[in-house]
Amino acid sequence: MGNKQIEMGKVSNLITDMTLKGATEEELTRAIRHSMVVIDAEKHALDYKQSEIDNGIASLKKKYQGSIDKDGNYHEGASTLISRAKSETQVYKRKGSPIINEDGSLSYKTVKEEYVNKNGKLKFRMQNSTKMAEAKDARELSSGTPQEEAYADYANTMKSLANQARREMINTGKIAYSAAAKNTYQGEVKSLSAKLNIALSNAPRERQAQVMANATVAAKKKENPDMTKAEIKKANQQALSSARTSVGAHRTPVEITDREWEAIQAGAISENKLIQILNNTNIDTIRQRATPRATNSLSTAKQHRISAMRASGYTTSEIADALGVSTSTVSKYLNGKG
Prior knowledge:
Elements: H1 4-20, H2 25-44, H3 48-54, H4 57-65, E1 66-68, E2 74-76, H5 81-84, E3 88-100, E4 106-111, E5 114-116, E6 122-124, E7 126-130, H6 131-134, H7 146-171, H8 179-184, H9 186-223, H10 229-247, H11 258-265, H12 271-279, H13 283-290, H14 300-311, H15 316-323, H16 327-334
Antiparallel strand pairs: 1-2, 3-4, 3-7, 5-6
């Protein structure tokens, strides 16, 4: 039995849909009995196809998963929001990074690339996605049961929060580059550049190690299709460690000191270099540093930024907006009371 995972997915979806749609205990027993046969079919040489017949799985699928589309065609398959959420769907091949729209939703550049398949038919190249990812409203996937409606509310709330986060991200002002700050933090700028160069020099070896590790794990998964997630994770770690040793790759993330963080906040680093640093550092550490903390005083970095912005001709109001503080706080500092 080489398609155990596919068959398990089918019967799992069936049991989910039956449960949500109020199947009887006798019907659920038949479906669960069949699922146990599928689980042990390969190991104990059981006939899962005969089990489908013995347990009347075809009639259960027709009753709980059968549907007729708008063109009058009959279909069977996952039929509730819970089972359809992770179901695969195909979309036109996408190119590059997603585009963030004004409302925070994502859109993609698609490539309608044609090819001729083995049967001589002209086709478009597609790629896999999930039905939940493509649905604007989770209710599009619901059959209308109370449980699905509750899940749809939750899913739509999560989609809305994601859109909001993306809107805030694109509306957040960038740290303006300051030549004065660069001069003030010469040592820190030089130190960050040196750390970045080391990280970038290791990048080709790290990519090579990742490719080697992926190939090793793929071979192991092919030999043992029933590997658990824990086993795959362990295999990944072992393969990557071995590959790094083989190619001489060393993990060298940019470690940012408190003083270097002040330099970044003051605008001493150009946007391009800052992006490179952030791509080569511990993002959890950055999140911790960037999380706003309640305080009644201005940090050294903010003080330097106020001075730099005032020297560049910014008004008190503009400085306050950029730093997320009140105009009175900026005024107090500028008047020597900060």
